[in-house]
Amino acid sequence: MSNQLTRRLALLDDDAHRALLGQGLRGIERETLRVDRDGLLARTAHPAQLGAALTHPQITTDYAEALVEFITPAEHDISVTLHKLDAIHRYVYTKLGDEMLWSGSMPCELPDEADIEIANYGTSNIGMLKHVYRRGLALRYGKGMQCIAGIHYNYSLSEKLWQVLSSSEGVAHERRMPLRDFQSESYIALIRNFRRYSWLLMYLFGASPALSTSFLRGRAHALETLSDDTLFLPYATSLRMSDFGYQNDAQSGLTPHENSLESYVNTLMDAVNRPYPPYQALGTKKDGEWIQLSTNVLQIENEYYSTIRPKRVIRTGERPIQALCKRGVQYIEVRCLDVDPFEPVGISLETGRFLDAFLLFCALDDSPLIAPPDSAVHARNFARTVKEGRRPGLRLERAGEEIELQAWASELIGRIRPVAALLDDQHNDDGVHAASLAAQQAKIDNPALTPSARVLDEVRAIGSSAAFGLRQSALHAAYFRDSALMPAEEAMFDELAATSRTEQAAIEAAPGPDFDDFVAAYNGSTLCCD
């Protein structure tokens, strides 16, 4: 254990500080496709009864019109977060009719590109901005990519905890660093450690070793054939996070520097302002219709498909980079988690407990700066794990040498164990975090227990990834439909839906600039004022 980790754990184990560990926040964003009873992509619009996708705080759409996204309120305990995610699912199922929510990350059988509808957000300038951005994504990546689903895990620590660490380590006095900057720097340090170790999450929680042949649209690949409608890799953990996922040539050389918030922001600002010749050839309009927001490497900074992001809650019209520059990092968003097809809400409480221990470890441990060669090593370790993570004897790179994945994974679990113990002490010593670590160690000892191995076993047994997905979707649909919400919960969601429709109508009725001027103002970062 590093000196910094030992020192910080001892500090937070003090009676005066232990409660701070329970004051951070956890939130989940779960994406999932709406499908019909046959497991085919729903061709219907986002159900009006759910509310307006533009303004609803918990139920919206992502890229495709059929790709719904559920956003939980931020809570101090992941068990409460998951309870609220469960309630969202139950409410949505009261409005879906015969449709279901797809159980996995990789899409169901997809129709032709022309028949996949891009998400719509109404006629307001901000709604059209969101829609045109998605038109640009379809142009750049293809609509099939807009049907991939994932779990995003939002995580923060208490600002009082950062204050305790800053004071203990003399940062404010010795370096004259404001608390906001110390907090931002600390989250960036967490992200660096996440880059070093996130391959472990892909091994433990990757759940997309196979995909439908319809997804690749004739694209060249080196996947193996399992059946007429299914392709796979025998030792893959997450094809979603491989080069079959949301990537393209324009982003291939984009690696934000995460040695400081400033370098991270500068890299993304360069990408959103640097023209990319193939996109320039397409232009921003075709036959007078907007087809993308810009012809630069990224239309907006969120187009960068990172496994983790520093985040700040944004204000109306504000760009994410603006928020980070003005007010610093508020939380981090983990974006590499597959939807778990064995869990009705897509993620288990046990997984959440492990993530809390893992992310706290990343936040407290030493986090040296990352040189470009080291960044390339981290990327190779991640890429190797998503495609070959369960291969017997698979070796990763560490400090210029090779090490077996299993050996390094077990070592990491050992380093995280004191962090889990501290969380359990704060959690009335119920042992839930230690139990989660034990469950992950079992997966390391026996790869057959990993979600990716279990999914592949089921797909092989049934003969089709689509059939497996449909079976799990039907099981989950029955689970949610068999247990109704409490009347007060249903009334709350009804009110949220009604309010969201009223808010969208008000936005659309309000006067505003011409859409061309609106886009220019957004691209120029002048829509939001302090």
Describe the structure.
The structure is a single chain. By secondary structure, this protein is α+β, with helices and mostly antiparallel strands. The protein has a single domain, classed as Creatine Kinase, Chain A, domain 2, CATH 3.30.590. It has 20 helices and 14 strands. The chain has helices at residues 3-12, 78-93, 125-141, 159-168, 171-174, 179-197, 199-205, 213-216, 249-252, 261-273, 277-282, 320-327, 349-364, 372-388, 405-426, 432-445, 451-462, 465-481, 487-509, 515-523; strands spanning 25-35, 59-61, 67-71, 100-101, 151-156, 210-212, 224-227, 230-232, 285-286, 289-290, 308-311, 331-337, 395-398, 401-404. Strands 1, 2, 3, 4, 5, 11 and 12 form a 7-stranded antiparallel beta sheet that branches. A hairpin with a 2-residue loop joins strand 7 (224-227) and strand 8. The protein is globular. The two termini are 44 Å apart.
Which helices and strands occur, and which strands form pairs?
Blueprint: H1 3-12, E1 25-35, E2 59-61, E3 67-71, H2 78-93, E4 100-101, H3 125-141, E5 151-156, H4 159-168, H5 171-174, H6 179-197, H7 199-205, E6 210-212, H8 213-216, E7 224-227, E8 230-232, H9 249-252, H10 261-273, H11 277-282, E9 285-286, E10 289-290, E11 308-311, H12 320-327, E12 331-337, H13 349-364, H14 372-388, E13 395-398, E14 401-404, H15 405-426, H16 432-445, H17 451-462, H18 465-481, H19 487-509, H20 515-523
Antiparallel strand pairs: 1-3, 1-4, 1-5, 2-3, 5-12, 6-8, 7-8, 9-10, 11-12, 13-14
Domain Glutamate--cysteine ligase: 10-383
GO molecular function: ATP binding; glutamate-cysteine ligase activity; metal ion binding
EC number: 6.3.2.2
